[in-house]
């Protein structure tokens, strides 16, 4: 069965896009077929793996707003073997208002996913916007599993209360929603602050595991500029290896 996982945190700067891209690449490296869905109006994931956003005929914006458009109408191949994408477009920023008058506006993504035969994919990975809005609600209603990328910084911990309150409320609409755990990103392993924050995170949320940490590095930004993943750009780097570990962790989580 296809697993549908979102990388979600309403706080910006937590490496959601970088993590979606590189975990997808790690899973594809393991022989899995991955569909990525870019639901951030900045369209960074789309551009990072080869979509020419300026010339798109259709994007995730059209998918959410037009009932007769399916995922198959929008999906594109990427620069990475084994990965397809439903690309985003800056027009998605307008969807917040345009969905206000749509019946079951919070279920539009869910309807599109359920209306598509996803059996050719092992995973659907969703990149999320840095906000709690109707697009975010669509994501949380549609997914089955949630990974929370988090930078080990005091401000990151402060916003988690609101995030988990939102997840609690969404569970009424999506009782199958499961938080897989936290993905620590931009971790400076020699930083006492980072280590203290990870300990504090584990103490505050003992029921949620910490996924393998992603070290602080410029390699992710460099690989994005080259329109590929860090696993292709710098396959022997510590960042690439860290994302391979995350991919393995996610695969093993299915067996728990």
Reconstruct the topology from this structure.
Blueprint (H helix, E strand, L loop, with lengths): L2 E5 L8 H14 L4 E5 L5 H5 L11 H6 L5 H4 L1 E2 L5 E4 L8 H4 L9 H7 L8 E5 L6 H9 L2 E6 L3 H5 L1 H11 L7 E7 L7 H13 L14 H7 L4 H4 L4 H16 L3
Summarize the structure in words:
- By secondary structure, the protein is α/β, with parallel strands linked by helices.
- Helix content is 41%, strand content 13%.
- It is built from 13 helices and seven strands.
- The protein has helices at residues 16-29, 44-48, 60-65, 71-74, 95-98, 108-114, 134-142, 154-158, 160-170, 192-204, 219-225, 230-233, 238-253, and strands at residues 3-7, 34-38, 76-77, 83-86, 123-127, 145-150, 178-184.
- It has a seven-stranded mixed sheet with strand order 3-4-2-5-1-6-7, sandwiched between helices.
- A hairpin with a 5-residue loop joins strand 3 and strand 4 (83-86).
- Helix 1 packs across helix 13 and helix 6 runs parallel beside helix 7 (134-142).
- It is globular and about 50 Å long.
- The model has no long low-confidence stretch (mean pLDDT 92).
């Amino acid at each position: 069965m296809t697993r549908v996982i979102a990388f979600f945190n309403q706080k910006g700067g937590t490496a959601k896009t970088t993590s979606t891209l590189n975990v997808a690449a790690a899973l594809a490296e393991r022989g899995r077929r991955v569909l990525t869905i870019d639901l951030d109006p900045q369209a960074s994931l789309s551009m990072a793996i080869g979509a020419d956003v300026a010339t798109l005929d259709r994007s995730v914006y059209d998918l959410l707003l037009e009932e007769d458009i399916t995922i198959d109408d929008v999906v594109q191949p990427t620069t990475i073997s084994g990965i397809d994408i439903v690309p985003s477009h800056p027009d998605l920023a307008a969807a917040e208002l345009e969905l206000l008058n749509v019946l079951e506006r919070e279920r539009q993504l869910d309807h599109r996913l359920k209306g598509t035969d996803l059996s050719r994919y092992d995973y659907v990975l969703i990149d999320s916007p840095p906000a709690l809005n109707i697009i975010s609600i669509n994501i949380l209603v549609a997914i089955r599993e949630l990974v929370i990328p988090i930078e080990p910084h005091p401000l990151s911990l402060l916003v988690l209360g609101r995030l988990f309150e939102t997840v609690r409320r969404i569970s009424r609409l999506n009782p199958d929603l499961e938080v897989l755990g936290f993905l620590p990103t931009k971790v400076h392993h020699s930083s006492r602050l980072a280590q203290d924050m990870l300990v504090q995170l584990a103490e505050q949320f003992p029921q949620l595991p910490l996924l393998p940490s992603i070290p602080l590095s410029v390699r992710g930004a460099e690989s994005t500029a080259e329109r590929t993943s860090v696993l292709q750009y710098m396959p022997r780097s510590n960042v690439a290896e860290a994302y391979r570990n995350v991919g393995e962790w996610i695969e093993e989580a299915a067996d728990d």
